[in-house]
Amino acid sequence: MKQQKTLKETKSESIIKNRKKSKKLKKKEALLKSKELNNKNQKLKKLSKKEKRRIKREQEEKLREIENQKDEECKKKMKLVKYFIVVDLEWTCYNPIEKERSEIIEIGCQIVKYIPEKRKLEDVAEFQQYVKPVINPTLTKICTDLTGIKQETVDKAPTFKEAWESFLVFLNKHNITTENARFVSWGTRDFNPVIPDALERENILPPEPDGYPAYFDLQYEYSLFTGKYCPFFKLSLAIEECKLDFSQFGGSHHSAIVDAKSEAGIFKKMISAGWDPYELVNNFEIKNNLANKNSNDSSDIKNDIS
Fold it and tell me: Which Pfam families match (predicted)?
């Protein structure tokens, strides 16, 4: 009986051991399967990230293509440009307390013609007009000290509407169109928001059918060309770097006509140093909130420059 018990015991022990082994094997198999699944999931995740990156790359390539197409179109249009209208304005100081916009008190302009085969700019004509402010007709001391414009000068000057009409007649006289010309400014403030604000205030509609020529920021282009990469590069510093002087243009800094001529001088220096305006792609449209509005006074405004 004892022997039989021992046999039974041994059998039961072996069964228990086998069960334990099978359990361990099952656990191992389960662990291996879970590891395999994890590896597969990770691979799937990696593939999805790659896919996302691929899609992102494709989107970026498409955007680059669109931008390149726009740049090429802009360059094609630029090759039709013969005239550059360098414009500078003097305006009253902005009053942040009363939230009043600046009013133009002087328009200065120098038209130059680009001759690509000679890589030079030739002076064509200049325009200067003082303007009478109407919201704040009395100039501040800061304004008169900075610009040198006297109160009696603006008191006798025409309003902005009259001055702008004269300016457009001047441009029309020199056959300026949206295709053959570009406005040029030192910084963007003159063309955004000062001119659009003045146009809207006087209810002046854009010329039909094409509006105004586009403009570009000479200040920005100069900073890029010279490696300064400063969008707010001072005109006085640029004049100094180009070995020019405001006095050679007939006056001092912060006179609109003197500054316009000075900016044209910088423009000439850039072209003689190798800058090509036909490679320019940073053109901006003059904003005009009245573009889609009807005006009863539009027939009285002689502002067609096309």
Answer: RNase_T
